[in-house]
Queue: 2 jobs
Job 1
Amino acid sequence: MLTAKLKQIRLLLLDVDGVLTAGEIIYGDNGEQFKVFDVKDGLGIRLLKEARIDVGVVTGRTGKALLHRCRNLGIDLIFEGIRNKAGVLPEIEQRTRVGVESMAFIGDDLPDLSIMRRVGLAVAVADAHEAIRKTAHLTTLAPGGRGAVREVCEAILKAQGRWDELMGRLFNG
C-alpha cells in the first residue's frame, strides 16, 4: 500500500520549520532571522524536480531566508503565513493541476494535521509530534532538517522506478 501511494506522487509539499530545518530559529542583534537548511535535502528536491515531480512549501511562518532557499532550489510554489494549511489545497490543485491524491506532505507539528489528513501521502519526520506520527502513512528515520526530506525524495523516486535512471544520467558521467 505504501509503495502504491509513493508511485502516484506528482507533487511534494513541505512544511519548513521542523521539516526543512531542525526547527531552530536564530535571531541576530537586529532581529534578523537565520535558518539552517540541510544540503542533502536540497539535492533530494533537485532530484525530484529533475524527474518532473514538483515541490512546494506550505508554512505558518514568513521570512526572507525561506524565500532565498526556495529560489536557490527552483521552488516557486510557496505559501507563507498559512494558519489553515488544508485551506490552500484548492489553489494548489488549480495552479498545479495535481489532485490531492497525488500530493504528499511532510510535516512535524500540530498545524500540519489538517493538510496531512487530506493528501494522498502524509509523512512525519522522525522527531514529529505524536499526533503527526499517528496521522502519517510514513515516518522517516531522519529527523527534520537532517535528511528527512531527502529520505522521502529517494523513496518516491525508487517507488516510481526513476532512481537508477537519474543516478546513471546525473552522476555516472
Job 2
Amino acid sequence: MDTLNKLAAPATAKIRQLQKMVQDIKKNDGSLLNKIRRLKSKPRPNVPARDYRGKNSATTAQYMSKIILITKK
C-alpha cells in the first residue's frame, strides 16, 4: 500500500497542478472571451422614427389649445 501511495503521489500532484492551470486559463480567457462576445452580440438599438410637427400654424395653434385645456383641468 505504501509503494502504491509513493507511485500515485506524484501523479496526483501533477493532476492537481494541471487542473489549476486549466482553471486559471478558463478564468482568464473566459472573461476576455465573454467581453468579446458581448461586443459582437449586441446589435445596435433601433431608434423609432419621430414624427415632428410641421410648420403649419393652424395645427400648432390647435395643439397648443389642447394642451392649455388639459392643463386647466
